[in-house]
Design a protein that fits this description.
Length: about 325
């Protein structure tokens, strides 16, 4: 596992670890409708679309749960993204943590598991170094990023929700990734995490691919919902990001898929941003041959090799909505 690998980009610093039981003791956001968006990745057009989406949903609150920075090496974009995020509830991801207080030897801080290739890890480390050059211009913002919590909790109609960037144990943990949740051991660990944290729903991101894993067993209705990326496509052949919406009320906008958990609607909702504008901005900052272009441009244009059906688990308990590119 990555947390036992000391190499930059694969290591999981001790300072990233909080332990699942810490969520029992944290303050709670009281809400009727909550949007959780991780992985904005510095896309200002996805930011605008997300803010419009939340504003159109009366009474909704927004939590950015980390990695809202990544591609935003343009100083104006960096300031715009972070000032907007800091006007809302937010947790820091590994990107913000490394920008604010670099952990020696952590590289990008992603804690990549062994199924991610070394070349991709090395490119991510270099992307982080380039982003640090921009962040160094804004010590006021990076100081505020470093002060953000690693986790939050929320309560909607009596249902308690744990909001993390990685998983229940660590800011850069992969326990809530679609890959780990596809295994019996991964689901067993997830079941234990609900009780340890005192929550019925976990909302996460970090791992770049979305999943809504619902549990309906002796422990009752519970779910882990990972929005994948707010600022990039999440499915092959699509061009929109995703946010998690958890609410006592049905969503007024387009949903990709969703489930009912404890009387709440738990949905993956579309973030339909200006695709041509974003592609042009990305290419201006990360042209062909650059590290981010090599790692991400194919996904930005065509989506990852991942289908919506793979994110719905089990399909008997998760509803698919009308999904078009």
């Amino acid at each position: 596992m990555a947390e036992h690998d000391a190499r930059p980009g694969r290591s999981c610093p001790i300072s990233y670890r909080y332990g699942t039981e810490a969520l029992k003791r944290c303050a709670e956001i009281e809400a009727d409708t909550l949007y959780i968006a991780g992985g904005l990745y510095g896309n200002p057009f996805a930011l605008d679309a997300l803010l419009d989406l939340v504003a159109s949903d009366p009474g909704a609150q927004l939590v950015f749960n980390g990695d809202f920075n990544w591609f935003d090496i343009d100083p104006a974009d960096f300031r715009r993204v972070n000032e907007a995020v800091l006007d809302h509830h937010a947790t820091r991801g590994n990107v913000e943590t490394e920008l604010a207080r670099p952990a020696g030897g952590a590289g990008c801080g992603c804690g990549y598991p062994d199924w991610v290739g070394d070349a991709e890890v090395e490119r991510s480390n270099r992307i982080m170094e380039r982003l640090r050059e921009t962040a160094a211009r804004y010590p006021d913002l990076t100081s505020r990023l470093g002060a953000l919590p690693a986790y939050l909790a929320a309560r909607i109609r009596g249902v308690r929700i744990g909001i993390v960037h990685g998983d229940g144990e660590s800011l850069a943990g992969w326990g809530f990734s679609q890959e780990i949740l596809a295994t019996e051991d991964g689901r067993a660990s997830a079941r234990a995490a609900f009780a340890a944290a005192g929550v019925r729903i976990f909302a996460s991101s970090h791992t770049c691919l979305p999943v809504l894993q619902r549990f309906d067993d002796a422990g009752g209705e519970r779910a882990i919902v990972n929005n994948g990326a707010a600022g990039m496509p999440n499915f092959l052949g699509t061009r929109f990001g995703l946010a998690t919406r958890i609410s006592a009320h049905r969503s007024p906008r387009a949903r990709a898929y969703g489930a009912s958990v404890g009387g709440l609607y738990v949905d993956a909702v579309r973030i339909d941003y200006d695709v041509p504008a974003w592609e042009a901005r990305f290419l201006a900052n990360w042209p062909a041959g650059s590290d981010a272009h090599m790692s991400y441009y194919g996904r930005i244009c065509n989506g990852p090799r991942y289908a919506v059906e793979q994110a719905m688990r089990p399909t008997s308990l998760v509803r698919r909505m009308n999904l078009t590119a």
